[in-house]
Design brief:
The chain is 43% helix and 19% strand. It has 315 residues and is of the alpha+beta class. It folds into two domains: 39 residues; 236 residues, Chalcone isomerase (3-Layer(bba) Sandwich). Strands 4-5-6-7-10-11-12 form a seven-stranded antiparallel β-sheet. A three-stranded antiparallel β-sheet has the order 1-2-3, with helices on one face. Strands 8-9 form a two-stranded antiparallel ribbon. β5 and β6 form a beta hairpin. α7 packs antiparallel against α8. The longest helix is centred in the first third of the chain and has 23 residues. GO terms for molecular function: intramolecular lyase activity. Pfam families: Chalcone_2. This is Chalcone-flavanone isomerase-domain-containing protein.
């Protein structure tokens, strides 16, 4: 079909005008093309699922996935560690802690609740970062445990009081007594310790032993333990001290104290079990030492755990 010169010019002008109004098309790189195809396949799969299985509530499935991802994102400073494992870093030391603890001994799933740094002397020298882990099953049902129905972070951070006008709502349990109810319910938990400077096992062993002896003295003054208990505890402490090898613990290596559901205390380092103490008092008091109402090992840890427990209790 022939076309006059003026007609050709008019057509060319129209094409130029129209092309000036068309948004430029971004070329499909292999990566963009792959994403586009994946989205189309996913959309087609959803449509097929709805048609093939009309009783399947896909919106509920998507909501569950979104809620799980939102819960994970709510954890402070989550990052990706080695092997793409999710971790959380101590802001004061940059030491990373896995969100879920993997141990060499069989234990229930233990989730990271909070972390902090241990400091000593008037110079506040940083010694180690410590993370507290609690049985995931218990975290999901905290309000089923007596004293935890209306828990807030301040309940753990506030020492016990007999004041009837307690703003936290007496006779609500508070302070260390709250953590005791968790452990007395047979809850598994652990503390993971990572030195921020080169040290040795004997230094940590002596620190733990001093904390346990101090708590034994308090229990004795309150008549909470008998003479038979005293003799058993003394023997268990000797066993506990013997678990720590006479060697160094380099900066960045981990030491884990695990309180099991049967009340035993396991000691692990480098993914290896160093030994166990089968004494419910020693295992419980070692964990409670980190949540004492006085002479707290790491105030930062206690505060962070309190916030973490409140977050779980609100879910």
């Amino acid at each position: 079909m022939s076309m006059s010169g003026s007609s050709s010019r008019r057509l060319l002008s129209q094409l130029v005008y129209r092309s000036s109004r068309i948004q430029p098309v971004v070329p499909q790189t292999p990566r963009r093309l792959g994403v586009t195809i994946a989205l189309l396949v996913a959309a087609g799969g959803c449509a097929w699922t709805v048609q093939a299985f009309p009783e399947y509530d896909i919106s509920r499935h998507l909501r569950t996935r979104w809620i799980a991802q939102a819960d994970a994102a709510a954890l402070p400073n989550p990052t990706k560690g080695k092997g793409n494992a999710e971790t959380r870093a101590d802001p004061e030391t940059s030491v990373s802690f896995p969100l879920y603890l993997k141990l060499s001994t069989p234990t229930p799933d233990l989730a990271l609740v909070g972390l902090g740094v241990r400091k000593v002397s008037f110079l506040r020298v940083k010694v180690y970062s410590v993370g507290f882990y609690l049985e995931d099953r218990v975290l999901q049902h905290l309000d089923d445990i007596p004293g935890w129905q209306s828990f807030t972070a301040q309940h753990l951070l506030t020492p016990p009081t007999t004041n009837p006008s307690d703003p936290l709502g007496a006779p609500q349990l508070s302070g260390e007594a709250l953590m005791r109810t968790l452990l007395e319910a047979g809850t598994a938990c652990a503390v993971r310790i990572v030195p921020v400077r080169n040290t040795d096992f004997s230094h940590l062993r002596d620190s733990f032993t001093r904390a346990l002896l101090a708590r034994q003295k308090i229990a004795r003054a309150k008549s909470e333990i008998t003479e038979e208990d005293e003799a058993r505890i003394a023997e268990s402490l000797q066993t506990f001290k013997s678990l720590f090898p006479s060697q160094s613990l380099p900066k960045g290596e981990s030491l884990v104290l695990i309180r099991t559901t049967d009340g035993s205390l396991h000691v692990e380092s480098g993914g290896r079990l160093l030994g166990s103490v089968r004494d419910a008092w020693v295992a419980r008091e070692m964990m409670l030492a980190y949540f004492a109402d006085k002479d707290i090992i790491s105030p930062v840890l206690k505060e962070d755990v309190a916030k973490g427990l409140e977050q779980y209790n609100r879910k």
